[in-house]
Amino acid sequence: MRILDPNQSYTFSKIFELRIRPDDLANEFGYGLTRKRLQLPQYQLELEHLEYLKNHIEVVLPYIDLANETSRREVLISQVVLQLVAYTKAQLRIEYSIKVNEQLQGYLDYLFRSQTELLVIEAKREDLDYGFTQLVAEMIALDQWDRTPEQSILLGAVTTGTIWQFGRLSRATKEIEQGLDLYRVPDDLEPLMRILVQALVA
């Protein structure tokens, strides 16, 4: 039985609002989904200013209300995203619009493009579970998008700002892996940043 009405148009944000389970949405488009601990490769060389960034976030956090998505983006996510650009020199697109078909379309919160790699990040206020469903839709769209580089693995992340969760899509097998590990900012900032950097310099 179809979850999405083939006669209706959907956006990524609309799919989030429907509160569909990530595996059910993946199956809808012919992909499989498993949940597991992901051994994601980490960048091994020195990352300058990382300790400064962590300390800066720790200093300002007690004074900022993170109750809404805008404050989380401005205070937490943007700090990580901008530092990632500085490290990798990747092109960053914010609120980037793509359309594959009527079921796979909408705005990507953050899309990074290096010479050969793409990385997508979805920002969510608090609901990581259905936020991951939206990330699944976005990664499937990127897999089917004719402007995606010829990379074998697509990596994505969904974040509330304070918590990050990764997803990985194998384009050959059409299998999506939902990472069980959660990375917290600022405590896990170093491994988080090393994963993000490696994804764009691989």
Describe this structure in words.
With 202 residues, the chain is α/β, with parallel strands linked by helices. It has six helices and seven strands, in the order ααβααβββαβββα. The chain has a single domain (30-201), classed as tt1808, chain A (Alpha-Beta Complex), CATH 3.90.1570. It has helices at 12-18, 22-28, 50-60, 69-88, 128-144, 189-201, and strands at 32-36, 91-99, 105-113, 118-123, 153-159, 163-170, 175-184. A seven-stranded mixed beta sheet has the order 1-7-6-5-4-3-2, sandwiched between helices. A hairpin with a 5-residue loop joins strand 2 and strand 3 (105-113). Helix 2 runs parallel beside helix 5 (128-144) and helix 4 (69-88) packs across helix 6. The chain is globular.
